[in-house]
Amino acid sequence: MLTVYSDKHALRDARTELYGGELVPPFECPVRAEHILGRVREVGLGEVIAPREFSLEPVTRIHDPGFIHFLEHCWQEWVAAGFKGEAIAANWPARGMQQRAPHHIEGKIGYYALAAETSITDGTWQAARASVDVALTAQSAVADSSSSAFALCRPPGHHAAGDMFGGYCFINNAAVATQAFLDQGAARVALLDVDFHHGNGSQAIFYDRDDVLFLSLHGDPAEAFPHFLGYADETGHGAGQGYNHNYPMGPGTAFDTWGAALDDACAKIRGYAPDALVVSLGVDTFENDPISFFKLTSDDFRRYGASIASLGLPTLFIMEGGYAVEEIGVNAVNVLQGFEGD
Amino acid sequence: MLTVYSDKHALRDARTELYGGELVPPFECPVRAEHILGRVREVGLGEVIAPREFSLEPVTRIHDPGFIHFLEHCWQEWVAAGFKGEAIAANWPARGMQQRAPHHIEGKIGYYALAAETSITDGTWQAARASVDVALTAQSAVADSSSSAFALCRPPGHHAAGDMFGGYCFINNAAVATQAFLDQGAARVALLDVDFHHGNGSQAIFYDRDDVLFLSLHGDPAEAFPHFLGYADETGHGAGQGYNHNYPMGPGTAFDTWGAALDDACAKIRGYAPDALVVSLGVDTFENDPISFFKLTSDDFRRYGASIASLGLPTLFIMEGGYAVEEIGVNAVNVLQGFEGD
């Protein structure tokens, strides 16, 4: 399988994450991508190429231009305001408040944020752009070959909504790639999110559309980030009614339950008969992930890769989360090897 | 003038505030109240008494019971979850997300928060309860005597909405006291907020009611916290239409402009003919306040105290913000002395 990778991901190297009331070294860190790339090479998964550079046009098919402008300029505005730390939202448009983007960066960052754990730093924008270039380059390869590819994206993307960042995500790589399939002529695309965390950004982006079937297996939002989206009763809206499927699962969920949910999701994908499949691939479902509560083993990743392959679809894997850094390479590549039947 | 004060305010002694992407010692700190009390005694403002203990009944006239339960138990739930820092919201129900309180404290705190600068700590609940007892004791004195009193509240309250804390505020002391006047027979109460920051909580609580006239002079929300409420076009809703007046003002505003806004507000209060006046008294309008941008001098505080006195109303002063700690006593008591004609 082709892998697309950019070493510009390393420009996203925040010092701080707000976690448990402390500023700690971020769980989402550069070595994650390095370990995955190392494993791709170790097992000889296939060719590794650098991304092409795309314009922002495919990105603004998904994201609000004001949001993109904010992402590009946030760090400079933050520094100019005299703040000394990394750029972190400390207030936001809460219940009953105005949905107007303030002028001052202290407020503007809250308008465009859905969480405060994720800082914006020097280099974040450049890394996020390279990450979506990785996704679009891999998408192009899948579209051209009708086979599969692995976009080794970092930073991840699935929490990013049309106009909000958070959950370590800035540009929604999977959503941009999904839209690219459609813009190139696909009639229907399925977007399957197997990251431990609900793909709230992807869901929100496609919630009222029937040309994208979104399915997410994840920790129950009553117990897990993003906490405010991902319930089973969120089934789509308007034309999108019936095209959104959530599988929230509780603490301690192991592969017997998780795999059954995946089988159900795969059956729905078959029924939808999409032209392509995009997989938001997070491996924080792993039993030893430090911030998640599912109990999948490394072997389980290989097993579910095979399940996804059985769909027989042109398939684009987009890297999302996974914070058990030592095992992230084995776990992510196990999915791809399982998919390849290796 | 009678002052009500409780030394239990010192139980609110957080170590951390999220500011500019760093965790810094909080601007809202115990010495603030001590300096104000010292100045009250230094000038011989009048008797200083401790508060009576009230039940939660007057508090739940304003605040959601689920929110009050959260405030009472947040710190214990946070510690039980294994978090090491003070309790700070790191995610929230952002645009398009569910307004459901999650089970896990990591999500629950975001549901009940409107900002992340304010941590919840051991002792916060006890101090917030004592603070609202201070407000209610002073309210009772004003109601009984038809004169004036100073509730030396700490923590402050005006940012707290019916079901959200933030901006250093937990229970909205001014709103609870305002409701107490009404519940004791007042037909109309005016709530004048002269803190530098918009009184978003107070506004939201009374926004659809005509028995409370709310007026706030404050930094333009496009430039200043709380950033998402306090615009001039917020004039009330339903029965409350026309009973909410905001005076947002820009950086560098001095007393010529600020005093003219106060005169306009006082004219509206006269027209409303309330039975009592509650003043949310913040002195962060001071020229040397470290986190605000108005330019009032210490003498200006005395001048506007006289303007408020000219309304001739039973008046309850509720202490809110002010972060120029060395001058906070002089500035706050200057308002009260100006009111007394001293």
Keywords:
homodimer, 342 residues, alpha/beta, 8-stranded parallel beta sheet, two-stranded antiparallel ribbon, 10 helices, 10 strands, globular
Give a topology summary.
The structure is a homodimer of 342-residue chains.
Chain A: E1 2-4, E2 17-19, E3 22-24, H1 30-42, E4 48-49, H2 57-60, H3 65-80, H4 105-111, H5 124-145, E5 148-151, H6 173-183, E6 189-193, H7 200-206, E7 212-219, E8 244-249, H8 255-272, E9 276-281, H9 298-309, E10 315-319, H10 328-340
Parallel strand pairs in A: 1-4, 1-5, 5-10, 6-7, 6-9, 7-8, 9-10
Antiparallel strand pairs in A: 2-3
Helix pairs in contact in A: 1-10, 3-4, 5-6, 8-9, 9-10
Structural summary, described in words:
The structure is a homodimer. With about 350 residues, the first copy, chain A, is α/β, with parallel strands linked by helices. Chain A has helices spanning about 30-40, 55-60, 65-80, 105-110, 125-145, 175-185, 200-205, 255-270, 300-310, 330-340; strands spanning about 1-5, 15-20, 20-25, 50, 150, 190-195, 210-220, 245-250, 275-280, 315-320. In chain A, the strands form two sheets. In chain A, strands 4-1-5-10-9-6-7-8 form an eight-stranded parallel beta sheet, with helices on both faces. Chain A has a two-stranded antiparallel sheet with strand order 2-3. Chain A is built from ten helices and ten strands. In chain A, about 60% of the residues are buried. The interface between A and B is large, with 59 and 59 residues.
How would you sum up this structure in a few lines?
The structure is a homodimer of 342-residue chains. Chain A has 342 residues and is of the alpha/beta class.
